[in-house]
Amino acid sequence: MGKTLIIGASGQIGKMTTQLLLNDQQHVIALVRDKNKLSDLSSSYLDIIEQDLESDFSQAFDGCEQVIFAAGSGGSTGDDKTLLIDLWAATKAVNYAKQYGIKRFIMVSSIGADNPDAIQSDLKPYLVAKHMADKHLINSGLNYTIVRPGSLTDEDASLKITTQQPSERNEAKISRENVANALLQIANHSTNENSIFELFDGDKPITSL
């Protein structure tokens, strides 16, 4: 297995995914704005690149086989950061991936990104950004997997998921640890090309992805 570039490796899901890949003795390039946020990770399989996603971060793709885009502007930022990170940085990442011949691009998107108009809330700018970034990836010609998790929780990983949206809105959720384990499964084992699916806590093993 070649190197995996994780963009947003210091975020909650990104860091969990980084640790899981390292535990599996996978080579990881962790792209972060502040490398101190990964000071508790130590592995001969880990290389850290410190770079702001609002600038040119193309060199991080050199020598990598696949990319996991797990970066996000965060709930406490304004629409400007949503535009710059969730849309523009994601779009640039897709372009860089094409430039460097990346074999697979795994995008962490969001439930609701398929149709932002269906949700009237303060999250709409975020969902629009995710929608447009997903569209750019879909049209890029890259081999892609787009994962759209439900509402994120801090519960421990059950390692059980479903790709079928629950009928009850309050059940449309998934733990961050389950998302990270799903990303590990996709990165290491999934052979499905150009797939898009929603992801929730459920009763199927993550290995079914």
From TrEMBL:
Transmembrane segments: none
SUPFAM superfamilies linked: NAD(P)-binding Rossmann-fold domains
CDD domains: SDR_a5 (cd05243)
Domain NAD(P)-binding, chain residue ranges per copy: 8-189
InterPro entries named in the record: NAD(P)-bd_dom, NAD(P)-bd_dom_sf
Gene3D superfamilies, alphabetized: NAD(P)-binding Rossmann-like Domain (3.40.50.720)
Signal peptide: none
Name the UniProt record assigns to this protein: Oxidoreductase
